[in-house]
Design goal:
about 775 residues; alpha/beta
């Protein structure tokens, strides 16, 4: 078993070494485990001789999709890779072989087409084979989608007892390609129970310093850092990296001195880098970090820490809401999404999601609602159901760390719900009731809360991830119970030190002018220690009470938020939108497909389709693009908006066909991932965005030879080509393709992009423009 309390040095880049050895373009590197194991073993031995303690099996890209392309059994590739690494180690003490697993190359739903459980199955196949072959631990690395990483962690937990290390690749802005933040990664992976976490690839050690600092500040787990050898540059037709071994080793030494436990190298690092790093860190002792345990829940990009009064929106619970009930029975998911968006706009910081009706499939509906809501808002969610089956299904597919609402003091509830929370990395909300119902006095509720906390901790949950709801009774029927609830909140806070939640509006059932009672009860509960009211964020009186409470409880520094919200002489009322006004721009901005299509159809009654495209759809997409570039939204929201625009455009296209209009005249583009490169996630995203800017896109797929690109240009008459490369080795293929186009079609313009591309590499290829992302591709395409 790998030692987690020692400083360990991981090896360097397998791909760089294979390229140095003349790996042929288009070869799946993992097939060499079977066809040339001696070459792979020789690379492992070079790293061991350089001082590496951990050898990564040559299994990073081994999955069913790659195996199918290579015509080889997946199990054979994985088993041979792990056994080759073990053979190189030869039983040396203190040396370990890791089953190395990278992303599968497909985007998960709803942003892509891969179902979550199919992703789990893809990783499960790799993990079973690697575990059987004798791997010492599992390394999940280079992930950019937190959702895919969660699928891989679940697959590991369900199919192996080996320790799990997990790292993601962050961009210079501190988020991943799919928008995951450092803090959400840490919160999610800690809750899922990994043994170590960290960052690898994407950047050099100097650029990773801010990311590593944030990781160390957020976690108490051992941290792994594997930087690239700087950034790629092209010199005399050869790709190299801009950090020397000496500079790399010095940076890595600093990481160890700050508390990083495990270090190694990623792209561009060779045995020389590892040897110098070994000499630099030799003799260093592990440094304990000062990160304090913190609770909370998260989506991939946003966290709710409950360190100040936190509003949980209550509007997505069908109890007493006839419109929502009708929408659920009609499977009107757009109604659900609009309600979620409205709560976010009104100030909710967490959304309670309850799909419980007796005549619908609640587990399926709750899971679908969670998946769709997470595509249109980045608020963390509270999964609300009395059904353990529904909670488990939703918790499994949740992207991030949710709050489960709820468990109670009954043994069967504790036995059913707590294992779900532990397995899927959730916080849990405990209700102070048991087999005898809800106790009338505060002390009895405290006793149940104590029992829930003890059971949750015994199940492996941290106290920071346990919340208690002391339950609000209706005062019109039980006048003394409001007081007892407030006493219970105070007792739970004082005796157990956990966060408290309360459904406030229950207090006023059966009374007139309910908002008056609700906001007064809220104020009194907050004074008693309530952390998170479940409430209607659209209730002005209650939101005002929350804002005031944050000032009075010293949770709003210098009353800044309060002044910004209420500092005007007279509060401005939000302008109401008439229900019959087509809000196509809003629908596109929030990713509401059905709403966008309906709005387009309504606008067609009075406006020609091309006018709607030019005045409504394109400006809406431009605004979304700016939000994406400014970091206000992330890739999943960008794709959802593009899909909404596409739904609107399809309505307009049908009308254009009737009238003989040609909406794509002169806007043709051919796109491809270049020869030898079998990664196409980025290219596929570019296609979606270009189509929604009214480009006629011919997508040639991946691993496309230069001649095929030329043929497509001639077949379509396109004057624009987009080329993608995700590996340094295929930049040369990109150059070859552009040179052929320059020779045969000199009037064609070329845009290039991809993970390894930089301005200098784009200049080397001879491209007309370099695009760092999908939106920049659109701008370049329009200008060209």
């Amino acid at each position: 078993m790998i030692e987690l309390d020692k400083i360990l040095l991981f090896d360097g880049a397998m791909g760089t070494m294979l390229q140095r050895g003349g790996l042929e373009l288009g070869t799946v590197p993992e097939t060499l485990n079977v066809t040339a194991p001696e070459a792979i073993e020789a690379i492992h031995r070079e790293y061991l001789a350089a001082g590496a303690d951990v050898i990564l099996a040559n299994t990073f890209g081994a999955n069913r999709f790659k195996a199918e392309k290579a015509g080889m059994e997946l199990a054979a590739m994985v088993e041979a890779g792990v056994k080759t690494a073990k053979r190189a180690i030869g039983g040396a003490p203190g040396k370990y072989a890791a089953l190395d697993i990278g992303p599968c190359g497909r985007v998960l739903q709803p942003a892509g087409d891969l179902p979550f459980d199919e992703a789990v199955a893809v990783f499960a196949e790799i993990i079973r084979a690697g575990t059987a072959a004798g791997a010492d631990f599992i390394l999940l690395e280079t992930f950019t989608d937190l959702y895919e990483l969660k699928a891989a962690v679940i697959a590991a937990k369900e199919n192996s007892d080996l320790p799990i290390f997990a790292t993601m690749s962050f961009e210079a802005n501190g988020t991943t390609f799919f928008g995951a933040s450092v803090e959400s990664m840490v919160m999610t992976l800690e809750a899922l129970g990994v043994s170590a976490l960290g960052v690898n690839c994407s950047l050099g050690p100097k650029q990773l310093v801010p990311v590593v600092d944030r990781i160390l500040a957020a976690t108490r787990l051992p941290v792994l850092v594997q930087p690239n050898a700087g950034l790629p540059v092209m010199e005399e037709g050869v790709t190299r990296y801009d950090i020397t071994p000496e500079e790399f080793a010095a940076c890595v030494k600093n990481f160890v001195g700050e508390g990083v436990r495990f270090v190694g190298g990623c792209c561009g690092t060779t045995p020389e880098y590892i040897k110098l790093t070994k000499s630099m860190i030799s003799g260093m002792a592990p440094v304990k970090t000062a990160a304090a345990p913190r609770g909370g829940i998260c989506s991939p990009s946003r966290q709710a820490r409950f360190e100040r009064v936190t509003v949980i929106g209550e509007r997505l619970n069908p109890t007493g809401k006839k419109a929502l009930q009708a929408a659920l029975r009609a499977h009107d998911m757009d109604f659900v999404l609009r309600e979620a968006i409205r709560e976010e706009e009104q100030g909710a910081e967490v959304l309670d999601i309850n799909m419980g009706l007796p005549d619908i499939d609640e587990p399926a509906m709750l899971a679908e609602a969670v998946r769709e809501i997470q595509a249109v808002t980045d608020l963390p969610l509270q999964l609300d159901s009395a059904s353990p089956a529904a909670l488990e299904r939703a918790a499994r597919i949740y992207n991030g760390k949710p709050l489960l609402n709820s468990v109670n003091g009954k043994k069967e509830s504790l036995d059913a719900v707590l294992p779900i929370a532990k397995k899927y990395g959730c916080a849990v909300l405990g209700l102070t009731l048991d087999e005898n119902g809800i106790p009338k006095d505060a002390e009895a509720r405290l006793a149940i809360a104590r029992r829930i906390v003890a059971a949750a901790e015994a199940a492996g949950l941290r106290r920071e991830d346990i919340f208690i709801d002391c339950l609000m009774m209706t005062v019109s029927a039980q006048p003394d119970q409001a007081h007892e609830t407030m006493r219970a909140i105070s007792l739970v806070k004082r005796e157990l030190g956990v966060k408290t939640v309360l459904g406030v509006s229950n207090v006023s059932f059966g009374l007139p002018a309910r908002p008056i009672i609700n906001r007064t009860m809220l104020a009194m509960a907050l004074a008693s220690g309530l952390d998170a009211p479940i409430m209607n964020p659209g209730d002005a009186g209650m939101t005002e009470t929350v804002a005031a409470a944050r000032v009075l409880l010293e949770q709003d520094a210098d009353s800044k938020e309060y002044i910004e919200k209420y500092g005007a002489a007279a509060p401005q009322q939000a302008t109401s939108v008439k229900e019959d006004t087509p809000q196509i721009g809003y629908a596109i901005a929030r990713g509401l497909k059905d709403e966008a299509a309906k709005a387009a159809a309504t606008l067609l009654i009075k406006h020609p389709p091309l006018e709607i495209v030019e005045r409504e759809i394109i400006p809406a997409l431009d605004a979304v693009g700016k939000d994406y570039e400014n970091g206000k939204i992330f890739l999943p929201q960008l794709i959802k908006s593009a899909e909404a625009a596409k739904a609107a455009f399809e309505v307009l296209r049908a009308e254009l066909v009737k009238t003989g209009g040609d909406t794509q005249k002169g806007k043709k583009i051919v796109i491809a991932t270049v020869h030898g490169d079998i990664h196409d996630i980025g290219k596929n995203i570019v296609k979606v965005i270009l189509e929604n800017y009214n480009f006629n896109v011919t997508d040639l797929g991946k691993d496309v030879p230069p001649q095929r690109v030329l043929e497509a240009v001639r077949e379509t008459g396109a004057k624009l080509v987009g080329l993608s490369a995700l590996m340094t080795t295929t930049v040369a293929s990109m150059k070859d393709t552009i040179e052929l186009l320059r020779k045969e079609c000199p009037d064609v313009k070329v845009i290039v992009g991809g993970a390894v591309l930089t301005e200098s590499l784009a200049e080397y290829t001879g491209a007309d423009r370099y695009a760092k992302d999908a939106m920049e591709t659109v701008r370049h395409a329009d200008s060209l």
